[in-house]
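@channel anyone free to eyeball this complex?
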Amino acid sequence: MIPGSGIRAAESRSLASGLGRTVIIVTAVIALLAPAIRGQQGFRRTPGAVYDADAKGRKSGPAPRRDISGVWEFANGGAEGIQADGAKAMPSDGKPEHELPFTAEGRKAFMEHKPTFGITQVPSALTNDPMPGCDPQGFPRIVLHNAHHEQIIQTATQVVILYQFNKKWRVIWTDGRKLPGNPEVPAWDIKDSPPPEARFWGYSVGRWLDDYTFVADSNGFDDRTWLDNAGRPHSDALHVIETYHRVDAEHLEKTIAIDDPKYYTRSWIALDKLPYRLQSASLEIPEQECVPSETAKYNQLFANPAAR
Amino acid sequence: MKRMLVIVASGVALLSVPLGAHHATAVFDLGKRLALSGTVTEWFWANPHCLLRFDVRSEGGDVTHWVAETQAPPNMIPFGWTKQSFAVGDQITVTLEPVKNGQPLGRILQVRLPDGKTLVAGAPAIPAGDARP
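replying in thread with the prediction:
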């Protein structure tokens, strides 16, 4: 009962009062929701923004050589990119196999974070997550939390990745330059390089491991960002290894490894061959911005009263 | 009618998959379902979450101002939600998961629109192999 409203709670768990009744209920539910479900499989989107899923029995052509360009979306549906409980391959769910190899310093940093998901979650009003206030997510959180479409552009000297969330981009240099030698005071060792600075998006260089596998290394990160939605921390010694494997003409797999000797005793896999599907060349990536004024209204109307 | 709403609510529990959010599930009374009929007072199409505000009148005449959230617009568009989904004054029935503290707040599982159509706030991910429409 909601105080003052006179409304009775309809709790689903109180319904099961006999097998026959349950069968009737389930049948009724499927009949009622079937049209909606059929619509969802089609993934209706704004005009021009149609999600390309694989057709049954469709065989893709061979992978192009040294080419990962295009607009990509998750092969198994957009929901796969939303990793609410933390990095998809290592969610913060309390299972022993998902316990991260924290150093003492790393565990201390983790416990100081107050995420809104995972085993150390707190109500939204009590979080110190920088993201809800629209501070930069940075890399790799952009692909370990609220990942959506990505567009990859290749030039002679760069691989550029455009991300949907907050319309951000990264440049992965392929001109032969080396990663900053000192990730704690990072800078490019090239002519016309800007002054050393740690960055939310780090410094990235890439190379082709073979004709179908592109590997990028990144360091020089600002340690104010979190690795994921569950508050996993990183230090200024973070080194991220991304592997893009072009499986065939329409599919790409992404793997992300986290290497941070200050906070983790060994490297660990955050994304493990996550499959993407190539989208139509005419697809425009939807807009998704973190808007401080909208966040403030959300906090006032919902997050703060929900946490009282 | 009330019984039908209960059935629909349990169906949503069976079939929908929360999309995940940027904020805590800790505030929600997980597994609890409410079916509420009321009048739209605002549809706020925004990040990080859309908010649907609606008034519910009890049999005794008391009015409760509800605020219910969904995920951000890009996460709702694939399921047929738009900025134009609701207008002020629409008579709707909202099935939601309420917060624990008794405030008239919750996250939307589905909404039945004035024309009888239903918007669902989540769905199973597309299985690999499903054909494009």
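from a first look: The first strand of chain A starts at residue 70 and ends at 74.
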